[in-house]
Amino acid sequence: MDIKLKDNGTEGELIISGKLDTNTAPEAQKLFLEMTNRFEKLIFDMGGLEYCSSAGLRSIMIVHSTMQEKGGTLILKNTIPAVMEVFEITGFSGVLNFE
Asked: What CATH number belongs to 2-98?
């Protein structure tokens, strides 16, 4: 997995590619949570994310909850159909913000 950051002041965009799974989710979650302290708005560009396991979903939901608690926003964009299907099956598509 690869994550790149675009810093736009109060808005951070993380460009995520590869697989967000049991092996990569712990390190990714650590980085994601660091970004919640740094930005008011987080955007996850998931166009390069090929796969997201339940561990990956958990990491994203933790970031979503953390951002909401501090009055911030998490937006997921460019989600490929295979990954979007996982969000839809779990019901997270109705909770998270997608562009």
From this structure: 3.30.750.24
